[in-house]
Write a structure and sequence with these properties.
Number of domains: 2
Number of strands: 3
Largest sheet: 3 strands, antiparallel
Structural class: alpha+beta
């Protein structure tokens, strides 16, 4: 991870660290690695989303472990500086600053060690489509609904999950959502 961190400009690395701290403090549902990766690539840095996700997971583990052990800024930086593959200077400066400013908030949160074991719903998009024809059938005229759910995984990564439904399946899906809404109104 240290080799890939060297590639990331300091401002983007700082933004990634800020998002991780906010996620650990339960202020945001997850870390938008896809959006950040695209912006880093646009700036001319050759990094893929898998590598950025690994860096985000490593930093998340680092910050949550430091919070669990109630490390001071100096203890954290000393520990990081003595590692086998040391981090670049700009990364240590960012980690020092972020931990100094917001690290104690993680330690003070109700339970820094417990993370959700299921994803958190962030957004839902849907669209109606019609399959006009295929290789096997000239005239389908088959309507369907495509649903894309945006979910923050327990690791903090934001991912999209897509699926298609027939109109009867979508009507059943909609009915279940109405039932949930009516139950929630009674709570």
């Amino acid at each position: 991870a240290a080799d890939k961190i060297r590639l990331i400009p300091q401002d983007f690395f700082a933004e990634l660290c800020e998002q991780i701290i906010q996620h650990l403090n339960h202020k945001i549902p997850g870390i938008n690695t896809a959006g950040l990766c695209q912006r880093i690539q646009t700036s001319g840095v050759d990094i893929n989303i898998g590598d950025l996700a690994k860096i985000a997971n490593t930093l998340s583990f680092l910050f949550s472990t430091a919070a669990r052990n109630n490390l001071s800024t100096e203890e954290l930086i000393t520990t990081l500086g003595s590692g086998v593959s040391t981090l670049p200077k700009h990364a240590l400066q960012v980690i020092r600053h972020v931990w100094n400013e917001q690290g104690k908030a993680i330690a003070l949160s109700e339970d820094a060690g417990s993370m959700a074991t299921v994803g958190q719903f962030v957004d839902m998009k849907w669209k109606l489509g019609v399959a006009m024809s295929s290789d096997a059938c000239r005239s389908l005229k088959y309507p369907y609904v495509t649903v894309t759910l945006t979910v923050a995984e327990p690791s903090g990564q934001i991912t999209d999950k897509s699926f298609e439904m027939t109109i009867p399946q979508f009507k059943n899906f909609f009915r279940q959502f109405k039932e949930m809404a009516s139950v929630l109104e009674t709570v």
